[in-house]
Amino acid sequence: VFLSQMGWGDLGAFGEPSKETPNLDQMAAEGMLFLDFYSASPLCSPSRAALLTGRLPLRNGFYTTNGHARNAYTPQDIVGGIPDSELLLPELLKKAGYTNKIIGKWHLGHRSQFHPLRHGFDEWFGSPNCHFGPYDNRERPNIPVYRDWDMTGRYYEDFKIDLETGESNLTQLYLQEALDFISKQQASQQPFFLYWAIDATHAPVYASKQFLGTSQRGLYGDAVREIDDSVGKILRHLQQLGISENTFVFFTSDNGAALISAPKQGGSNGPFLCGKQTTFEGGMREPAIAWWPGHIPAGGVSHQLGTVMDLFSTSLSLAGLQPPSDRQIDGIDLLPVILQGKLIDRPIFYYRGNELMAVRAGLYKAHYWTWSNSWEEHGKGIDFCPGQSVAGVTTHTQEEHTHLPLLFHLGRDPGEKYPLSFASEEYQRAVENISELIQQHRASLLPAQPQLNVCDQAVMNWSPPGCEKLGKCLKAPESDPKKCSWPH
Amino acid sequence: VFLSQMGWGDLGAFGEPSKETPNLDQMAAEGMLFLDFYSASPLCSPSRAALLTGRLPLRNGFYTTNGHARNAYTPQDIVGGIPDSELLLPELLKKAGYTNKIIGKWHLGHRSQFHPLRHGFDEWFGSPNCHFGPYDNRERPNIPVYRDWDMTGRYYEDFKIDLETGESNLTQLYLQEALDFISKQQASQQPFFLYWAIDATHAPVYASKQFLGTSQRGLYGDAVREIDDSVGKILRHLQQLGISENTFVFFTSDNGAALISAPKQGGSNGPFLCGKQTTFEGGMREPAIAWWPGHIPAGGVSHQLGTVMDLFSTSLSLAGLQPPSDRQIDGIDLLPVILQGKLIDRPIFYYRGNELMAVRAGLYKAHYWTWSNSWEEHGKGIDFCPGQSVAGVTTHTQEEHTHLPLLFHLGRDPGEKYPLSFASEEYQRAVENISELIQQHRASLLPAQPQLNVCDQAVMNWSPPGCEKLGKCLKAPESDPKKCSWPH
Predict the structure, then answer these.
(1) Which residue from B minimizes the CA distance to A285?
(2) Nearest to B361 by CA among B411, B420, B418
(3) What is the annotated quaternary arrangement, including any partners (chains A, B) (predicted)?
(4) Is A345 among the annotated ligand-binding positions?
(5) Both A195 and A326 in a single domain?
């Protein structure tokens, strides 16, 4: 279960003050809560590419060199996508006989060579890009929804999202699709990998009619309640089919809550600093729950430093497969953590585009670069840290600290508000240790060709496969490739 | 169990990211979690006076008129204290045959007429003031620790607190005292009221040797762990004595975490704005747990708006007593909430000294005055909202909004960062409702004589009762009554 920009603080089990996620809280009570789990990027596409490849965006190409330390993703006019040279988790799982399905947002490129069924998935119901819109189908086409190889309609035309009321039944469609797939796989006794990548918590936030107005938190909370309810139904379905003890389920999110959209369309990062787009804790620390009845001791709590890339390695391990040996994999196998309560020593690298902004080792986090966003964007009302301003930390210019990194102790100071004194012994010791980790990291780092540099209006979803049958083909404008503009 | 400035976000059950409070989390899992529970003041003494009288500080005298909207408490040179005209919870419980004990911090005045044994308590082990120090016993005496009527020693002399290491065994002493009292009462089959008012989480924070260095959160976390462990021992003791089903236990705190002391000596207010001294949520929203096995359904969660004053009315109700009818009581009986899951409609009034700063009704909170602290104090490095700055909200001048209050929706925006538009219908409706509540509130409001206006060095703890036997009497300076200075 992979959420779109749900924040660390959005679940009752993580301290959300409305406590409206009984199913996810129950999942945590029956499974293991990860309190120190991270996305691979403070933005959606790179984080998703990292999850499916087990590799940092800098290695798999999901970054830009258009500017220093800029986040980039896959809007409609992006030319790039997941390179053929990357090995995706479903491609590998196939070798062990798994049937792989993606439900929801793909986000690894929408041109034909990037199609998920070309990269290991057997089935798809969902969209290649964010559900932004509605568009006019002239300047910009509405985003298609695919069933397997072909489009089956477009958002706002065939799949409604009411931007006034926030009503849409998409999560229900995605839920039914998941339940059906699970039933089918159980009936045929086939092992399966289901990547349930729903996006109701991504602006424009939506919920089904039955959930609208049910949350203390407004529309965002309605969406969370529907997702919570859906996860509960999926878990119960597994139990009713008698396969819960054979099914490993993991719940997490692709980046922190988008505070720029709060409070109506954005969630909560709890006690952490800033949100999506930043490499502060609020941008990359994620809610995370592992569930596997009969295997994971109920009520477990882990402080293992984990990342979405670990789900790649852990899934391979569960399938009895080895990770590819011809490339660097950043994920680690979490099974010893989950099943035996081990703690594996490993750092967390916080990248923003092409720059290593910060590193966490143990409870220490060192910032080598700080940046929330530019003064120019900030002046337009774009604020990734609303109500939060830590002098010298939430900077509006890109500030380099490579010679004297800003150091925080995340146990005493989870909110990154009190940098340690440069003169302290504690600072010296921690920074020395982290410097070594960076040297090791860089020694084996081979950045891929950046995939997110070039945009072209001609590559948008004008005529996706299957459009002819539906009479939904649109005329593409002439090709006009440009450097994409990534302001953050 | 009444904590000193523990924050809403300090327990695992409330989302603290280190999750180090297994006993309190277990208490919540077996009992009922209150997510919308408030202190009666953002400062210690007034909140404690309100708990024991069931009345707002403005009614029981625990406020100052030395300046507008200033917090005040009971330092050593305070002349005032709890008036004889106030009826305290233990005085009333006596009528039902209860034996009452206070362990820990009294804080309702230290002169002889304010002694807790004059106000209904039968036993006392603890101190009348905060454990600040060490003092020189010339300019200022060390704070005495009482056993019942007489002092039994002084902090830093007979009861050590090592300010370098943070080591002190005080919580262990207070724990043992609680266990012994409970055993004695159980043996004699006497009903009892135990007010366990510990202060290890109040700066200077301390913990026993066995807990030092055990927390991810530093010394503050060590103190929390020791308190968590102690509460676990008390609850297990009740169970082992077979009286847990006859004993109602409530856990909460007197004000929000003191962010001015963070991160080394202060806790966490989770997602809320600012801390102690302020009437933002971080200053007054408290962790709260009710526990009563066999009566409270396990795992309950309540959104009842509650206050520490409700513990007065609820305790009377549990003892089969009526609240006094000759005075206004602000507390309500929470038993219907706790036992039957009812929700009682009632507002929360946020006072700072003599001023009604804000009012909460349902999920709406209207600020009629805003003030964090003065520019002058802020310039000295005193910051009640470190890293947080919400334009027009966390003001450094006292800002009046009585004609156009700032309105927040605490469901969508628990952090008080996004005021509602003055022009919206939602604003109009909510403010109209709250205005009516204020009118009703003011109609019956009779402020008491302020007790916290006058300070005098002669009234300090120079020669507490029992000092002769210990050879610990000190010579008081001449009386020199002055207006106390309350900068915040």
Answers:
(1) B17
(2) B411
(3) Homodimer.
(4) no
(5) yes
Residue A478 lies in a domain: no
Q: What does the pLDDT average to over A160-172? A: 98
pLDDT of residue B140: 97
**Residue A62 — pLDDT band, cuts 50, 70, 90?**
very high
Residue A268 and residue A9 in contact, taking contact as beta carbons nearer than 8 Å: yes
Claim to verify: residue A360 and residue A339 sit in the same structural domain: no
Task: Give the rounded percent of residues in chain A with a pLDDT score beyond 90.
Answer: 99
Q: Which residues in chain B (406-425) have CB-CB distances under 8 A to chain A?
A: 409-415, 417-418
- Looking at the structure, tell me whether residues B260 and B302 fall in a common domain: yes
DSSP state of B138: S
A437 conformational bin, left if phi > 0, alpha if psi -120 to 50, beta if neither? alpha
Helix axes A170-187, A219-240, angle to 10 degrees: 10
Nearest CA in chain A to B416: A387
Is there a contact between B218 and A17 if contact means CB atoms under 8 Å apart? no
pLDDT class of A349 with cuts at 50, 70, 90 = very high
Token pair belonging to A38: 């991270």
Question: What percentage of chain A exceeds 70 in pLDDT?
Answer: 100
CA A404 to chain centre: 31
CA distance B259 to B262: 5
pLDDT tens digits for B460-477?
999 999 999 999 999 999
End-to-end CA distance of chain A: 28
Query: Does A15 sit within 8 Å of B14, measured CB to CB?
Result: yes
Helix %, strand %, coil % of chain A (to 5): 30, 15, 55
Q: How many CB pairs under 8 A join A and B?
A: 125
Q: What percent of chain B has pLDDT over 90?
A: 99
Residue A415: per-residue pLDDT: 98
Q: Could you tell me if residue A428 is inside a domain? A: yes
Residue A408, pLDDT score: 98
CA distance A389 to chain B (A): 5
Alpha-helical (H) ranges within A103-218 are 170-187
CA B486/CA B452 separation, integer angstroms: 10
Residues B121 and B147 in one domain: yes
Give me the torsion for CA of A363, A369, A372, A376, rounded to 10°.
170
Q: Are B193 and B334 found together in one domain?
A: yes
The C-alpha atoms of residue B128 and residue B152 are separated, in whole angstroms, by 12
- Number of domains present in the structure of chain A: 2
Computed over every residue of chain B, the mean pLDDT equals: 97
* Tokens 């997490």 sit on residue: A252
Write out the residue range of the structural domain in which residue B417 sits.
Answer: 352-444
Structure ipTM: 0.95
Chain A: give the shortest CA distance to residue B479, in Å. 43
State mean pLDDT over A395-417: 98
Q: Taking phi first (over 0 means left), then psi (-120 to 50 degrees means alpha), and beta for anything else, what does residue B400 get? A: beta
A contacts of B418 (beta carbons < 8 Å): 262-263, 386
**A7 touches B: beta carbon within 8 Å:** no
Distances (CA, A) of B331 to B85, B289, B434: 18, 17, 19
Q: List the structure tokens of B426.
A: 């939602």
Total-model pTM: 0.97
Helical H segments across B170-309, by residue range: 170-187, 219-240, 281-284
